Amino acid sequence: MAQEKPNPKNLKRPNKQTGEQNQSKAAKQAANPKKQEKQVKEKPVVEKQGKKGLKKIQNKKPNQEKEKQVDEQKQIQQEEKQAQSEKKPDENLQNLEVSNNQYYDSSDDTDDEIITARIGKVPWKWYDNYKHFGYDAELKKIVKPAQMDKIDEFLKKAENPDWWRTIRDELNQEDVKLTDEQLFVIKRLMAGKFASKKIQDTDYTVEYEYNDPFPMDGRQQPKRRFQPSKWERMMVNKIVDGIKRGTIVLDQDKEEDEEEELFDLWGANQEDDLQKKMPQSISAPKMKLPTNAESYNPPEEYLMSKKELKEWKDTDPEDREHNFIPQKYDCLRHVEFYDQLIKERFERCLDLYLCPRTRKKKLDIDPESLIPKLPKPEELRPYPTTLQIQYIGHKSRVRGISCLSNGQYLASVDEKGEIIVWEVSTSRIVWRYQVEQIAYQISFTSDGLLCVTSDTNLYIFNIKRILNKQQFEKNEGMLVQSKSNNTIEYNQKFKWEYTLPEEDSTTKDNGLRIKIQMNDQLKSLSVHKNGDYICTVAPSAEKKNESVIVHCISKGLSSQPFNKTKGIVEKVIFHHKKPVIFILTRKHCFVYNLQKQANIKKLLTGAQYNSSIDLHPYGDNLIIGTYDKKVLWFDLDLQSTPYKNLRYHEKAVRNVKFHQKYPLMASCSDDGQINILHAKVHTDMMENALILPVKMLKGHTIRQDLGVLDIQFHPVQPWIFSAGADHRIFLWT
Predict the structure, then answer these.
(1) 634: number of Cβ within 10 Å
(2) Taking 90 as the threshold, does the pLDDT of residue 234 lie above it?
(3) Mean pLDDT of the chain
(4) CA-to-CA distance for 709 and 728, rounded, in angstroms?
(5) Contact 561, 596 (CB under 8 A)
(6) What residues does 712 pair with on adjacent strands?
(7) 464 by DSSP, 3-state: which?
(8) What InterPro entries does this protein map onto (predicted)?
């Protein structure tokens, strides 16, 4: 038979892919020589012809040879499949090639994207409590598959060799196995390449710069165009800093409960979007409603008399209670036209147009949080509360009182110069003495000597009736020694007169021992804690250096520590432990060191007239009373201004005192009141003093605008003595 020529229409030109496939087949045949021999025998005469041409040539061979070739081809295909199955998945991906007729290349087939559950974008959590997870196209429920636990999933992964290429289709609730072609595409995309091999990485260009073909000038580009942006770097650094500090959280799943906004459907006050963007409007204040005076038939008490009408016309329009005259009519039709109507409407329009409106913000603060937590007065006991004893015997105003160190006797002086010593428990008069002039102040020393200032004289008494024998003899010996030491010429300015028992027997009963005469009138005195030093104050001294004088009893010496004082001195007190003296002038208080002869501190009271001063037993706090109705508390370790400014008296403060044993403070005033305060000072420097008013004592009567003139705490008990302008002395317990 003549050989048939191949049809040129059936011949196809081999493309690039078929050439590559032929090269791969040649490499496989070289690796397997047996297969190569078989393929040599089976090689057709025409190699470059198509499949149809080969079939026509092979059909011309005998049937036996044809069957033999078919068997050999089947055997070769089985061996190739077995070899491919033995390869690893990664090797399959490396040898996988994508042909030109893939679905992503030219097909619109979407069979792999069929969705059975037609639920749209409804959240899956809506079906958590149901046995189905949606409906299909025929509106039938799609039953959920059996859920696997962690153990079942682990066993499935261990038994299934293709678990690494299986993904979960949540929408259809089924597992999908990725094909080799899909894995190949995924691998290329993860490597940053195109899915198809037809498109190369160099098949496109991106124009990063735009060159103007007709530039307006020929300037070179600035350097900043070729450098990283400074502001972008700052913005990135800010974002990085926020991520480090935790203020910016990345990839945070924010699950917000979407609540339906309920509103009044038929409401007329619904704000639109434009109104929300505008500033908040403030409604105009409403006018005052008319009162009974504006009635056409007002009551009789609202009608003005002739006197009231005249006063109304004489007052300014701004100060009038009403801007009209109330009138009475029989009926409403008789009411005349209101002549001020247009004026009032015009002023109202001006107020609405010109007056600015503001909305006052009210502070939502709990009032109890502003009040400090303080202890109850019952917890701060003991302190004096009731009047216990009255000491009646003076015939004029009692100017000063003082209590003996043991608290058994009380001494007092009045304006007529009468000195009385009382027994505290019985109010019995133990001793009495009369001086020539008015007496201002009295004080006991720690040794039991009684000191009294009267006019220009300082009297010192040693009273035998109120002292024990040992203390009395000790004081007598000290006075004898003082007389022997009083030979200094400096004391010629201040005359010391001694009246000892040996010289005059009558003075022994009176108790007067020393009388010191000075040039100016003495108003106050202060005794040191050791009982040997006495300081007297003469505010009206002609010489500035004689306003403050310090007397030493044991040495019989009077000295002038200051050459000049700043201002008029009112009071002077000693420090309990340090060589320091406090000088109170009318407007200031000076702290003076006697050892260094220097002024340490100046306390600014801010008052016009200071009256009294006292020092706390610890020596770190000071109180000053003023005629300006104020009590000033100073902390000497802090600033030179008052730590507390207490103002609870209605009139001038006469005296202030600290208790030497209990945390109590008291002040008296011309309003006839004695205020008791709890004044606790902590030894710890980190805590401030606690000052609380606990009791107000009233009992003295006011005479000629004078009330309580002096107070004195009991040295042992939480009691207080008070002396008033009503000639009486009270004991409060």
Answers:
(1) 26
(2) yes
(3) 80
(4) 11
(5) no
(6) 721
(7) coil
(8) BOP1/Erb1, BOP1_N_dom, WD40/YVTN_repeat-like_dom_sf, WD40_repeat_dom_sf, WD40_rpt
CB contact at 8 A, 589 and 582: yes
The counts of H helices and E strands in the chain are 15, 33
Q: What is the domain extent for residue 511?
A: 382-732
3-class SS at 506?
A: helix
C-alpha 59: how far from its chain's center? 103
Please count the other Cβ atoms lying within 10 Å of the Cβ belonging to residue 690. 15
Bigger pLDDT: 216 vs 106: 216
Identify residue 613 by its one-letter amino acid code: I
pLDDT beyond 90 at 139: no
Q: What is the dihedral of CA 558, 560, 565, 569, to 10 degrees?
A: -10
Asked if residue 153 belongs to a domain, the reply is: no
Largest CA distance in the chain: 187
Beta bridge partners of 731: 389, 721
Residue 51's pLDDT is 38
Q: What spatial distance separates the first Cα and last Cα of the chain, rounded to whole Å?
A: 154
Residue 501 lies in a domain: yes
Out of 221-225, 229-233, 386-390, which region has the weakest mean confidence (pLDDT)?
Answer: 221-225
Residues 6+ apart with CB under 8 A from 42: 69, 72, 73
Report, as an integer, the average pLDDT of 444-456.
90
Query: Strand, coil or helix: what is 472?
Result: helix
Q: Nearest CA to 597 among 569, 562, 566?
A: 562
* Tokens describing residue 353: 């147009």
CA 462 to chain CA mean position, Å: 62
Report residue 409's pLDDT band, with 50, 70 and 90 as the boundaries: very high
H helices within 32-149, ranges in order?
Answer: 33-42, 51-59, 63-86, 89-95, 103-106
Residue with tokens 């720690």: 446
CA atoms within 13 A on the CB side of 198: 9
In angstroms, the CA 213 to CA 198 distance is 35
List all residues 6 or more positions away from 229 whose beta carbon is below 8 Å from its beta carbon: none
Q: Which residue has the tokens 């087939």?
A: 109
pTM score: 0.53
Q: Report the alpha-carbon distance of residue 49 to residue 14 in Å, rounded.
A: 9
Q: What is the DSSP string of 380-440?
A: G-----SEEEEEE--SS-EEEEEE-TTSSEEEEEETT-EEEEEETTT--EEEEEE-SS-EE
- CA 314 vs CA 141, 245, 256, 321, 575: distances in Å: 95, 74, 71, 13, 65
Q: How many domains does the chain have?
A: 1
Cα separation, 519 vs 551, whole angstroms:
15
Question: By the 8 A CB rule, do 493 and 445 touch?
Answer: no
**Residue 483 covered by a domain:** yes
Q: What is the CATH number of the domain that holds 634?
A: 2.130.10.10
As a whole-number percent, the residues of the chain with pLDDT over 70 amount to: 79
pLDDT tens digits, 624-641: 999 999 999 999 888 889
Residue 277 lies in a domain: no
Residue 222: asked if its preceding bond is cis (omega within 30°), the reply is no
Among 594, 588, 586, 603, CA closest to 539? 586
Question: Beta strand pairing status for 557-559 and 548-552?
Answer: antiparallel
pLDDT band at 387 (very low <50, low <70, confident <90, very high): very high
